[in-house]
Amino acid sequence: MSTIPFENFLAERLKNPEFAAHYLNAILDDGSPDEIAEAVQAILAARDERPLPAVTKPAVEQVQHLLHQAGLRLHVQPAA
User: Fold this and answer.
1) What is the 3-state secondary structure (H, E, C) of the chain?
2) Widest distance between CA atoms in the chain
3) How far is CA 46 from CA 24, 43, 54, 69, in A?
4) Within 10 Å of residue 41's Cβ, how many Cβ atoms?
5) Is 78 exposed, middle or buried (0-12, 13-18, 19+ CB in 10 A)?
6) What is the pTM of this model?
7) Long-range contacts (CB closer than 8 Å, 24 or more residues apart) made by 19-28
8) Is the pLDDT of residue 2 over 80?
9) pLDDT digits (tens, 9 = 90+) for 42-55
10) Which residues contact 10 (CB under 8 A, 6 or more apart)?
């Protein structure tokens, strides 16, 4: 039986929009701003988005704060 590094396995799975949405939603529920930023970067990298836009902790914190003030929570789904 051969094994592949987890990072490679995850990158391959993140190419699937449905998996990426589930992955990101799980991190949005329980993750820190740093973890959310890292997850978005991992999804973009897996989908070969070049150049990778900056996704930073302060940007994530700002979005979280604005949504919280509006009584909302972020949830993602695959684009149609």
Assistant:
1) CCCCCHHHHHHHHCCCHHHHHHHHHHHHHHCCHHHHHHHHHHHHHHCCCCCCCCCCHHHHHHHHHHHHHCCCCCCCCCCC
2) 51
3) 13, 5, 15, 32
4) 16
5) exposed
6) 0.82
7) 20/46, 20/47, 20/78, 21/76, 21/77, 21/78, 24/76, 25/75, 25/76, 28/73, 28/74, 28/75, 28/76
8) no
9) 999 998 877 778 88
10) 42, 46
Half-sphere exposure in the Cβ direction for 23 (13 Å, CA): 22
Candidates 50, 22, 23, 17; CA nearest to 35 is 23
Amino acid identity, position 58? P
d(CA 42, CA 20): 9
